[in-house]
């Protein structure tokens, strides 16, 4: 139960205890009960994350406490990700609008955007970027904000997701440089890109069926990729050469399916990135290192 008289600090600690008792699952912007409690309490109270300690210890009005309690109860009862309860999530330092039409932004590709894709890319040579399976548009938009000279195309198979992405692009001032396409993987017509970014569906069906409730609030279309998780990746890699410029690079987030991907495509010399802030499954691949292809444009492995 919430305390009758409280400060922001006390509400955070109370929410943390209740989340632990409820055995909630995290992974949508936070990875523990304390951070989840901070996120929701601060949102309800309109506090910034750099709020001074003294303000955290000020007594709250009943209406403020009630607003916090609504979110805490909903998080426990509904087991929805906190981002859906608040309608927002941060990615690369930018606030994105999110709801159940899109996955909650969390790809470790954000770390590479922040480091300007060093040491692999000469970002000064990048002019055209493609973001595959854009969802909320977070990767495409963050890239456009980090590199204001680039033009970004972004694709998604979900019209509903593209509605969210376009709204985010407009809010963050890049609607003139980020162009969204309703497409299954690649847009038309075929044009070469200097950088292709992809966080496609890669979760095997059986694994998705066993996920905690929080993950099953997300759109399955953005997660599930057949029995082995490679359904979309096979098609993405199968025509990659048609879209990647000769000096271009592919950057992908394939999460826990990365081992299966590497095993299925040993001819593709993926470099797996060690991330400073945690996470795995991020690979980079240069166009010049793509395996030789048959006359129909596919490698042996893509036909298996």
How does this model look, in words?
This protein has 304 residues and is of the alpha/beta class. It has 2 domains: 8-86, no CATH class; 92-303, Rossmann fold (3-Layer(aba) Sandwich), CATH 3.40.50. 35% of the residues lie in helices and 15% in strands. The chain is built from 12 helices and 9 strands. It has helices at 8-22, 33-45, 53-56, 62-78, 82-86, 109-114, 138-146, 159-171, 205-209, 213-216, 231-238, 258-264; strands at residues 88-91, 94-97, 128-132, 151-156, 178-182, 193-198, 244-253, 271-272, 282-286. The protein has a 7-stranded mixed sheet with strand order 5-4-3-6-7-9-8, with helices on one face. Strands 1-2 form a two-stranded antiparallel ribbon. Strand 1 and strand 2 form a beta hairpin. Helix 1 packs across helix 2. The protein is elongated. The protein starts with 7 loop residues before the first helix and ends in an 18-residue tail after the last strand. 38% of the residues are buried.
What is the oligomer described by this structure? single chain
Physical arrangement of strands within the biggest beta sheet: 5-4-3-6-7-9-8
Structural class: alpha/beta
Q: Determine the number of helices (DSSP H or I, runs of at least 4 residues).
A: 12
Fold-level CATH name of the largest domain: Rossmann fold
Largest sheet: 7 strands, mixed
CATH first level of the largest domain: which class? Alpha Beta
Series of secondary-structure elements, N-terminal to C-terminal = HHHHHEEHEHEHEEHHHEHEE
Number of strands: 9
- The average pLDDT is 93
Specify the helix fraction band. Answer: 25-40%
């Amino acid at each position: 139960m919430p305390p009758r008289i409280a400060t922001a600090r006390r509400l955070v600690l109370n929410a943390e205890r209740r989340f632990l008792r409820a055995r909630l699952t995290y992974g949508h912007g936070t990875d523990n009960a304390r951070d989840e409690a901070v996120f929701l309490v601060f949102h309800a109270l309109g506090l910034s994350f750099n709020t001074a300690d003294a303000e955290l210890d000020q007594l709250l009005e009943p209406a403020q406490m009630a607003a916090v309690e609504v979110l805490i109860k909903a998080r426990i009862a509904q087991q929805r990700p906190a981002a859906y309860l608040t309608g927002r999530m941060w990615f690369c330092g930018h606030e994105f609008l999110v709801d159940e039409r899109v996955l909650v932004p969390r790809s470790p590709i954000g770390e590479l955007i922040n480091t300007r894709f060093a040491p692999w890319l000469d970002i000064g040579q990048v002019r055209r970027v493609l973001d595959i399976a854009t969802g909320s548009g977070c990767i495409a938009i963050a890239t456009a904000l980090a590199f204001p000279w680039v033009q970004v195309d972004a694709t998604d198979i979900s019209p509903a997701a593209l509605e969210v992405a376009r709204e985010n692009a407009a809010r963050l001032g890049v609607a003139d440089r980020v162009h969204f396409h309703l497409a299954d993987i690649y847009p038309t017509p075929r044009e070469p890109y200097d950088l292709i970014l992809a966080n496609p569906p890669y979760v095997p069906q059986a694994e998705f069926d066993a996920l905690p409730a929080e993950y099953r609030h997300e759109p399955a279309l953005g997660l599930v990729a057949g029995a082995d998780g490679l359904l979309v990746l096979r098609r993405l890699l199968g025509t990659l050469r048609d879209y990647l410029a000769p000096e271009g690079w592919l950057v992908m987030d394939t999460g826990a399916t990365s081992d299966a991907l590497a095993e299925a495509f040993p001819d593709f010399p993926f470099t797996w990135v060690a991330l400073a802030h945690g996470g795995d499954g991020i690979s980079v691949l240069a166009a010049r290192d793509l395996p030789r292809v048959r006359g129909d444009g596919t490698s042996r492995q893509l036909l298996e």
